[in-house]
Task: inverse folding
């Protein structure tokens, strides 16, 4: 029984961290070149803060999904729907890094991050029906992406 829990959480946290690694690969192409020279707003955090914040957020996201998959009371169909909604927001998350950093396009990044923000809300609302703690674990992610949306928009406006 305990081994199943370990497998579930290792899988869900692992999937979340893999999404983060993929995004990081897109970021690394531009962080020390293009991004370094962009005009940024006064509230832009130092670059070193992003990696630990995202690491924590991806772990919380994985735990959130793990709570859904580990709950024996939740029906298979509801779990499948939860995985689908979770996957959609992960795809938007990865796509943001591709648009903003790899393509060096803050406008496309902003359009994507708005869709990501909406997907996180949908994810939280669906998870709320299944497990309140699971939904609340996504709240820091929602807050960070809300801030990142404002930051993305500001960078777009300051540079284009």
Result:
């Amino acid at each position: 029984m305990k081994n199943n829990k370990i497998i579930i959480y290792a899988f869900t946290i692992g999937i979340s961290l893999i999404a983060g690694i993929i995004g990081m690969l897109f970021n690394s192409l531009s962080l020390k070149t293009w991004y370094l020279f962009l005009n940024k707003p006064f509230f832009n955090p130092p670059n070193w803060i992003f990696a630990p914040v995202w690491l924590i957020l991806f772990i919380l996201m994985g735990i959130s999904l793990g709570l859904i998959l580990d709950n024996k009371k939740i029906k298979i169909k509801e779990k499948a729907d939860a995985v689908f909604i979770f996957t959609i927001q992960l795809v938007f998350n990865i796509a943001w890094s591709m648009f903003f950093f790899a393509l060096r396009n803050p406008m496309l990044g902003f359009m994507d991050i708005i869709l990501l923000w909406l997907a996180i809300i949908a994810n939280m609302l669906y998870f709320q029906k299944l497990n309140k703690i699971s939904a609340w674990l996504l709240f820091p992610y929602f807050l960070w992406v809300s801030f990142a949306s404002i930051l993305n928009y500001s960078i777009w406006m300051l540079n284009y």
Helices lie at 2-28, 50-70, 76-102, 106-130, 132-137, 139-159. The chain has a mean pLDDT of 97. The two ends are 55 Å apart (CA to CA). The chain has one domain: 2-159.
